[in-house]
Write a structure and sequence with these properties.
The chain has five helices and two strands, in the order ααααββα. The chain has 152 residues and is mostly helical. α1 packs antiparallel against α4, α2 packs antiparallel against α5 and α4 runs antiparallel to α5. It is globular and about 40 Å long.
Length: 152
């Protein structure tokens, strides 16, 4: 079954509404991240898509990521609870909840406004060229997974 399309305004707005339901003390249903860390963690995906903030993996690591991790990340199957994550996505320090929440909402708004066409054939930092469906699946299911983690 196809995932909702984050490039559609109604879907993006629904995700943003879920994010807006979070508060600085919303507890996790599972896992060890606090809500501020989760928001910062979700922002990493968009930092990698839009900013030159995270270095590309070396060629060997990129090959491994494309071979083993990409199929899990870009398919339609939901992530398992407490799945492992890449080092760049691990947030250990305290973050400003309001700032991280606003950043994530801004990234989702930007993604929706750019639309699927922008992402068709766009290169991922870790996985190489992705089509718009793969980008959508990566964006939407990661957000959905973590918003469910925090009960919204």
């Amino acid at each position: 079954m196809a995932l909702p399309i984050i490039f559609e305004k109604e879907v993006a707005d629904a995700v943003i509404q879920r994010i807006q339901q979070l508060t600085f003390d919303t507890p996790a249903q599972w896992g060890t991240m606090r809500v501020d860390q989760m928001l910062a963690h979700c922002n990493v995906t968009y930092e990698m898509a839009y900013e030159n903030k995270h270095p590309q993996p070396n060629p060997v690591m990129r090959f491994i990521l494309k071979l083993f991790v990409k199929p899990v990340v870009v398919n339609e199957a939901a992530y398992k609870k407490s799945s492992q994550t890449a080092p760049a996505f691990i947030i250990k320090d305290e973050r400003n909840f309001s700032i991280e929440q606003k950043r994530l909402i801004d990234y989702i708004t930007k993604t929706q406004s750019l639309g699927a066409t922008y992402f068709e054939g766009k290169e991922s930092n870790s996985f190489g060229l992705l089509n718009a469906t793969e980008w959508n699946n990566m964006f939407y299911k990661h957000l959905d997974h973590h918003l469910k983690q925090f009960g919204v």
